[in-house]
Amino acid sequence: MRKLVLLVVFAGAAFLGYHWFAGWRAYKAYEGFAEAWAQEKRAIAADYGDAEAVRHAFEERSLRGTEGGAAMEAFRGTRYSVESKRRNDGGDVELVVNQTIFFDPPGVTTGIGGAMLARYRHTATVRRTSDGWRVVAFEPTFIEMKELRRRG
């Protein structure tokens, strides 16, 4: 009986571990795509997303075309916060993630961290393909842009 209980616990842990790892890999594909979008690097985004998702993100929803994107001159980094993550019936991972982009506007150079930030909410769908996890849908929505107050 003890061996059966251990086998069930081990099988459950393996199942949960596999699903956690698969979700982590899906998230890393999203993050690579979102980072490439923020830095306007279409070729790198193509490593993480399918052709239609890349086309949509860079031609119809480009960073410079958003409300906050026009003021960005020097990219200073990003931060991500997952709002929700779920697996749909088809096995795709659907993510809602907040991306904060730190940047310097024209005429300001901070060197580290950026003088301003812009926040976006992304809804993305990531699918497992023969090439690994790929972003198949990506929709960025501008939330806010503001100046960073640093203590001197």
Secondary structural class? alpha+beta
Mean pLDDT: 83
Measured as a percent range, the helix fraction is: 25-40%
CATH class category label: Alpha Beta
**From N to C, what is the helix and strand string?**
HHHEEEE
The N- to C-terminal Cα distance equals: 66 Å
Strand content: 35-45%
Quickly give the CATH architecture.
Answer: Roll
Identify the overall geometry: globular
CATH topology label: Nuclear Transport Factor 2, Chain: A
- Poorly predicted regions: none
- In spatial order, strands of the major sheet run 1-2-3-4
Note the total helix count. Answer: 3
Strand segment count: 4
> Biggest β-sheet: count, sense, barrel?
4 strands, antiparallel
Tally of discrete structural domains: 1
Radius of gyration: 19 Å
Describe the structure.
There is one protein chain. By secondary structure, this protein is an alpha+beta fold. It has one domain: Roll (Nuclear Transport Factor 2, Chain: A), CATH 3.10.450.50. Helix content is 34%, strand content 37%. It contains 3 helices and 4 strands; from the N terminus they run H-H-H-E-E-E-E. Strands 1-2-3-4 form a 4-stranded antiparallel sheet. A hairpin with a 2-residue loop joins strand 3 and strand 4. The protein is globular. The termini are far apart. The model has no long low-confidence stretch (mean pLDDT 83).
